[in-house]
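re: that chain from earlier
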Amino acid sequence: MTAIPVRWLTVFLDFPAGSFGAGVAFWREVTGSALSPFRGAAGEFATLLPPSGDAYLRVQRVAGGSGGHHLDLHVDPARAPVEQAVEQVAALGAKVLHLERDLVISASPGGFTFCLVRWHGEGTVPGSIRLDGAGASRADQFWLDIPAGSFERERSFWTALTGWEGQDGARSVRLGFERSDGAGPVTGRLGFSCTDPGRLAARHAAAGARILAVLPHQTEMTDPVGRRYLLSPGDG
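^ sequence. v structure.
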């Protein structure tokens, strides 16, 4: 089966209504972003606008649940209209939740929500930012945390869906897979590459984050509303 022509990846940060304002303010600060006008029927979502390049992070207020993440996969309409992907995602094991013009909302075999949307030519990856002497950083990774019992199936699904092999092929954000404990649905975490994880962790903490663990190759954090994310050594 031919992979869907995914040309760009957008990560949504989903917030319960009560934590939306604080959550958006924090992520604007740590990504150095401006905020687009709010959109949607109830003004429920907006785009985090990077200082340079094309946007790839959005925020959304959700009516129920505790929030989390979902992904938008931007499909090249010259190669495959979004609506034509319904049979393909279903054949790969996804559950189609909603269909309209230029939008397919689905859940992966492991229960992670994603949308297929129309690609509008995005292709310029934003550069890193520098926060008050904390070194260079950029949110450039998205990790799917997958229960061990469904790991191979879920990884195979995403590889077949996108045509990307592991970290390769992602445009704005690298998509990775990690085994998790337990048997719940698949969840996700953003990750920052940065030149100085220690200084960046302190800077994020000053903005309202909390340091969970300092490990040899990464620092685990939570944002002000409890969303987990990672800092890893890299070029930023």
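The chain is about 15% helix and 40% strand.
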